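Quick check before the chapter quiz. The format below is the same one you will see on the exam, so make sure you can read both the input and the output lines.
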Amino acid sequence: MDLASIVGLFLGITLVIMGMFMQGNILMFLDVPSIFIVLGGTLGGVILAYSFKQLRSAIKGLKIIFSQTNDEAGDIISILVSFAEKARREGLLALEEEAYDLDDEFLKKGVQLVVDGTDPQLVKSILETELTFLEERHSLNRGVFSKGAELAPAFGMIGTLIGLIGMLAQLDDPTQLGGGMSTALITTLYGALLANVVFIPLAEKLRIKSEEEILSKEVMIEGILSIQAGENPRIVEEKLKAFLSPSSRSEVSEEGGAVARDVAG
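Here is the expected output.
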């Protein structure tokens, strides 16, 4: 479970509601027509822009946002170095059993291709093609939430115009002006909240998670090709650590040995 995502969403919603309470009566911030305009318009626009299949994929992406990433690049490097050591001692065929125990399907496919004796260029082409389509799927999922962030403030402004039109139409009845002004202002508030508390943060978190996964997959490709080429495990480790920040490289050096021993055993 990604605690930062949960805490961030909880704080964002809770503190905004607390701020409304401090204004006196929170019910004055509740306006049903405004909800219909902003929420209905935004959802309708997003649904119009994407297919139901694409929307289902984006909804599944929410699970990624609130789940902790397991395949961190540092751990993957340790696993790949252990594979390099085993392949150097016992040959590439010795990795076949290891491949079946892997949870990551991308890494499992790469190792199996190497074990099957596939040409290195073909291995690289297959894995990079799969990585390209993975990036496209991630980009599409982010696009759904980005579209919501784009549409929510726009429908807030539309609601403001509707409220102003209603207010101007009732100028001969001063008692009706308050309702029109309320709709005019609250729809703008709803649009801004929906975009900045929900859609924009979710789209940004998906972007970060996607970059982390892409980095892990790039490490896997480089490591698999290095193992297939029969490179020294130390060289493999140094090559893969180049993908990481300096602080992450030191963590790999400190913790990688234990992970490698567990995988090799």
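If your answer matched, good. The first helix runs from residue 3 to 21.
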